[in-house]
Queue: 3 jobs
Job 1
Amino acid sequence: MAREIERKFLVVSDGWRAGARPVGRLRQGYLTEGSPSLRVRVKDEDRAQLTIKLGQGLTRDEYEYEIPISDGEELLAACEGRLVDKTRHLHDAGEDRAWEIDVYHGPLDGLVTAELELSGEDEPVPDADWLGTELTGDPRWSNAELATKGAPVRLPPKGKDQP
């Protein structure tokens, strides 16, 4: 088991794009609702994982397993109505850390979030002018909830300051 300590924020401008690099398209579906979360993820059409997450908030237990891509595609097909499609980018956060910035597609088009894995709950988060409201611990902003219920607020249309 791995313990995941992570903070999540809305991204409010495209300032993150300088220095960021795309790492892949992620399609993920949720086989269960609530906790524990059971997710299947297909990355770039060639890798698949099954993930179980327990708990909510800053620190959660996470179990992650590689599965055959054919199994991943079949499981993803079973998740109709409980899907998230996004492109992930990495942006340097200093001290051998990286922001994972997710640009959502489909029904969540216009949503961009940033997550940072930490080594401890009291570890400081580097400031960035493109970070907005912290979403950590708000279950409405979990990917599982976004997949089943959509964004809890109306997303702004893409414009000059929207990624």
Note: The beta strands are 2-11, 21-30, 37-43, 47-54, 59-67, 83-94, 97-104, 112-117, 131-134.
Job 2
Amino acid sequence: MKRLILSAAFALSAATPALADDVTDTLQSAIEAYESGDVQYALEELAYAQQLLRAMKAEGLTAYLPPAPEGWSREVNTDMNQGLAMMGGGTGAEAVYSGNGVSFTVTLMADNPMVGAMGAMFASPMLMAAGGEIIRVGRQKFVDQDGELTALVDSRILVQASGADADTMLPVLEAIDYKALAGFGR
């Protein structure tokens, strides 16, 4: 068990060298709790360290949401990840773009089991076309289903835009760096 806790602590702390002190302090607290025989508290501390790291990862995904177009505003939804736990986990980021009396939402969802299940549909052009009209944003294919634009990046990251017509949402979708997004979390 001690080896497992130390391995988890090392892996979590090695994930990014500049982790916040809260993470390293929590991992150290887990080790100390284990060494003193308080396994339950060690588990609680490890769970808390994971929560902190997931929040850091979510902030990283938020960086892929483009800034608002000229004359528009962008409001990031910081509560998005709480709902993902009920959908099998993963990391999410979401922003509402508002301007000219219109608003729409762009959602990014990575490493969620439900998203992975959609991979077959996006891998098959016939299935994709059956789902709606295909729209290209650079090299990325989106399916337009009654105004909701959906794409799957690297078979694991869902990108959705909804709430306005496609022509209004496309400039924001065009501003996403899909190649960099495919490398998220790796």
Note: Strands lie at 73-76, 91-99, 102-110, 133-137, 140-145, 148-153, 157-162.
Job 3
Amino acid sequence: MAKVLYSATASLDGYIAGPGGDMSWLSDHLGGDNPTAERLLNSVGAILAGNGTFGGDDPNRGTDSEGAFGGQYHGPVFVLTHRPPAEPPADVTFVGDLHTAVAQAKEAAGDRYVNILGANVAKQCIEAGLLDEVLMFFAPVLLGDGVRMFDHPGGTKVRLESLPGETEHWYRVVYRARVPMG
């Protein structure tokens, strides 16, 4: 059965996008050998993104590397939104409900990962108890402002535990240990 994974690249100060969703900062930090990223790409069976992420900035726009995972991902894409486009792309499914979107993405992914793209959808999945794992890559830059990798003021602390054998920041979400912050 598919697992739901939130993966992203963040600045060292915890931002996955600059102000206004700007992703241009990421261009300087893409490429090169990354066995974990390659293993992840080969393990993704479906993508679930928020509408802002789906229609947002792409550091590779207009190049052969445009799209998820530097244009290397080719598979089912689901977009969580209450405002689907009048003429949606043929290869993208727009869904208005989180639980339905996750269920459809998991079915499409089979025994592979549903990869969450976008901090807002990841936050909704955590709140709903639907997120299984988190994988963060960190780029050597401080952005100072933008979209946080996880932002939930007044929310709950979510315990994570390292996955055995992983050297990157790849964790299992432990829901039974959720504790109010403060």
Note: Strands lie at 3-11, 15-17, 44-50, 77-80, 92-95, 113-117, 133-139, 147-148, 156-162, 169-180.
